[in-house]
Design goal:
Layout lengths: L5 E7 L12 E6 L5 H9 L17 E6 L3 E5 L10 H17 L3 E9 L6 H12 L4 E6 L9 H12 L7 E3 L8 H9 L4
Parallel strand pairs: 2-4, 2-5, 5-6, 6-7
Antiparallel strand pairs: 1-3, 3-4
The structure holds guanosine-5'-diphosphate.
The site of guanosine-5'-diphosphate has 19 residues, from helix 1.
Protein name: Probable GTP-binding protein EngB
GO molecular function, one term: metal ion binding
InterPro entries: G_ENGB_dom (IPR030393), GTP-bd (IPR006073), GTP-bd_ribosome_bio_YsxC (IPR019987), P-loop_NTPase (IPR027417)
């Protein structure tokens, strides 16, 4: 897809601030630092529209990016950040649950996990949460450039096994450095756009 227009719409702290255009939304869920902002920037070919985080876990907002005035990327705040207090974590969980369960324009979640390491308990919990609410999702394994190609199969198995995915379930191996997986990610999005 040719991206001709990309803008930050809002960092929403409450559902009242979510856009009311009715345009489709694609959420990026994953731990802080997993590469959500880099994924957005790579797909839309901007260096830094989405701010790559210097302070992981600090953003407790849903960040809306409007692309080609046709759909939104929604950057969901990172989870699994040890320094976030229990209260903050609970607040974050509530916000996320409300968003995932009540947002009718949410089409698909990209669940971002770090390809280098086995998924964490938080990753697994997020996957179960998304499945429980029957939201269509695709796992994106990030930072693939840091793993030699010869080990990709091994890392794919490791990731799928930990997440309880079947062998033929989709997983997109992605790198914001090399652009690996970018076309496959766009293919997922395109299915929802007329
Ligand atoms: P976010 O917190 O999930 O939005 O993660 P960011 O996109 O801010 O990325 C966190 C850090 O990982 C940054 O230093 C990025 O440059 C780096 N990073 C993200 N994606 C990749 C990738 O595919 N390859 C490599 N080598 N580094 C990446």
């Amino acid at each position: 897809m040719q991206v001709t227009d990309a803008e930050i719409i809002i960092s929403a702290v409450s559902p009242k601030q979510y856009p009311t255009t009715g345009l489709p939304e694609f959420a990026l869920a994953g731990r802080s630092n997993v590469g959500k902002s880099s994924f957005i920037n790579k797909l839309i070919r901007r260096k830094a529209l989405a701010r790559t985080s210097s302070k992981p876990g600090k953003t407790q907002t849903l960040n809306y990016y409007l692309i080609n005035k046709a759909f939104y990327f929604v950057d969901v705040p990172g989870y699994g950040y040890a320094k976030v207090s229990k209260t903050e974590r609970a607040k974050w969980g509530e916000m996320l649950e409300t968003y995932f369960t009540q947002r009718e324009t949410l089409q698909h979640v990209f669940l971002m996990v770090d390809f280098r390491h086995p998924p964490t308990a938080d990753d697994i919990q997020m996957k179960e949460f998304i499945e429980y609410y029957q939201i269509p999702y695709t796992v994106i394994a990030t930072k693939a450039d840091k793993i030699p190609r010869g080990k990709w199969n091994q890392h794919t198995s490791q990731t799928k096994k930990a997440l309880g995915l079947k062998n033929d379930d989709a997983l997109i191996i992605f790198s914001s450095e090399s652009g690996e997986g970018k076309d496959k990610a766009w293919n997922v999005i395109s299915q929802y756009l007329s």
